[in-house]
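Researcher: Last one for today. Full complex below.
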Amino acid sequence: MSNPTATGRVLHATLDLLDRQLRDRNGKLCGNVDDLEITRDEETGQMFITAILCGPGVLAYRMGRRRLGRWLEEANRRVHDTPTHHEPFERTRIPIELAGQIGPTIELAVDVDDMATHDTERWTLTHIISHIPGNASRAHQ
Amino acid sequence: MTSTPRPRSTRIRPVEQRRPRRTAGRAALALVAVLAASCSEHSVGPARTYDDYERKSRTSAEVALSAVETVRLLAETSSDGNAWGAYTSVSLSEQEDTLAEAEGDYASIQPPDHRSDDLRVKLLDLLGTAADHIAAVRIEARRGNLDSLEQVARPLADDSAALQQFLDSIKR
Amino acid sequence: MKKVLGVALGVLTAIGGFVDMGDLVANAETGARFDMNLAWVVIVGVVGIIVYAEMAGRVAALCGRPVFDLVRERLGPRFGLANLLASFFINMLTLTAEIAGVALSLSLVSSVNYLFLIPFVALLVWLVCWRMKFETMERVFGLLGLCLLVFAVTVWKIGPDWNHLFSDATHPHVPHSETVFTYAYFGIALFGAAMTPYEVFFFSSGAVEDGWTRKDLGENKINVLIGFPLGAALSLAIMACTHLLLAPRNISVDQLSQVALPVASVVGRLGLAIVIIGIFAATFGAALETSLSAGYIVAQYLGWPWGKRGAPRTASRFHVVILMAIIGATLFGLTGVDPVKVTEYSIVLSAAALPLTYFPILVIANDPRYVGPEHTNGRFLNALASVYLVILLLVAIATIPLMIITKGGS
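Model: Here's the assembly. Have a good evening.
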């Protein structure tokens, strides 16, 4: 891993990043910033945000509900039926380099389909919504 | 190929919040239990004193009076041609059920002493009579004779007066 | 001209959409038991909802996101979760009450027991949520709700002693037959019915669905400032009807059919038909709003895609939540639980949860990062809104004890 440089924006983690709405590269809603990964530089002792964490169970972990978090993770494992080359942990972890616009919403340079948070959306789509007629078109007058 | 392990050691996560949250959850459950218990209403709980029983008698009489008067108004409205069959019969059935429930609840309360027995006999008699008269109106309505409902409902005027008298006699 | 028509439509929709099962039950019951002595609560409630609905609409128009969406990021996930859980629970009670209300209104024209009609109504509600365009939905049920104006016609036709009516309303007192506790309890119920939380969530998300921008701020103000007071006047007409016709006969309201009785008695068959259409529209519209609110609050808290605008495929979890909420409410309603009792509990518990709902709105409407520096609350508005927050807190604290003391208002 490359050395985190001293440049970069100084943000207030809780005010500007945590719990913000995330959008993917196509502008689709893809979850909130459930947690942040902070790494400590061994030499300087400085702390840097290295990743955004978003996905099933992450918020539960953050709020101290470990068992609930683990349960949600497990449940999601069963729901995730699209093979991707990403490992489970990586799908809840988005390296901070991929975060673009940091403002009212945070734009990520990823596809929502690659994120763990989208698994249940895909599942409900294939198993429930697709079976109901009229799901593919916008509501008409 | 190697999976990146979750860097737990460097993740900063607050741990102390667990304890207060658990008690908050328990408090919420206790609150719901208290609510559910206390909001189940007046009639069917036991009455330990005469005053208690009198209060429950009052409540039941008021419910009955409301039902009787509603039926009278429905009969009048229907006879004037101001309501159609479905509305009248559904409303009448609702009032009949309300009265029956009040009667049943009241009858199941154990009167605490002999003074209460008198009250019980008197009120149950009134409730029974009113129920019969209301049933007559409902039967007539279901037969489609909406114009004659006011006639059939005439005895209810006496029931209403009797209930009102009963309530006045136990005024607190 | 088109603009005027648009504004008029908005106002009319606001009036017709103001009343729901909670308002019907609360105003009718109160009028029968307390005459006009609680009319002032309706006025206080409507001012409150005007203040906060304007704020919620402004936030939605200026930052393109509904208020609830912003609660988690502005006030933290714990507060957001508490808000979500409380609101969702109360929402389910309300949805059950509204669906039952629709079924009851249909039973009054068909003689079919309302329990059999509940599944049919639920299906209808879901179909509209699934397929009808948002704006169409709002307009149709809002305008049909104007049928409830027949309550005002009824009052006028009775020709009451207006002086007496107003003196009761302006000099409220606790009637001899009631205690101060039942008076307060019904006051809280009325207040909860006037300021129902789901209305604000729906209003706010609806503004985003309708694509409001800065240009719509003026229209938002007009809808809210004219529409809501007239809606409140409608509520008071319901109260006056039961006060004038049912109270003198010692009739207390415990069925929805009794709410329509004054109209039938005074205006006749046509009046009865109109009022039942109005009740149908009001409860159906409210059922739609509460179903959608269930979807909005869950999806927005968790960051899922949401909205009726796009095809259902694009927001599948959102639609699944709506479907499950409707199914849940249907099952609960089918247990035969008394719809009027469920309504009473939903409005009283709403009152208890009001601070949770309204506090974030005040915070966010004051935050220039969301509404821009020129559109934050003015000092007067903040003062007024803060006074209301204090009122809401007092109401919330008093609710549970009063519920216990009065044994649910009996």
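Chain C is about 80% helix and 0% strand. The longest helix of chain C spans residues 77-110.
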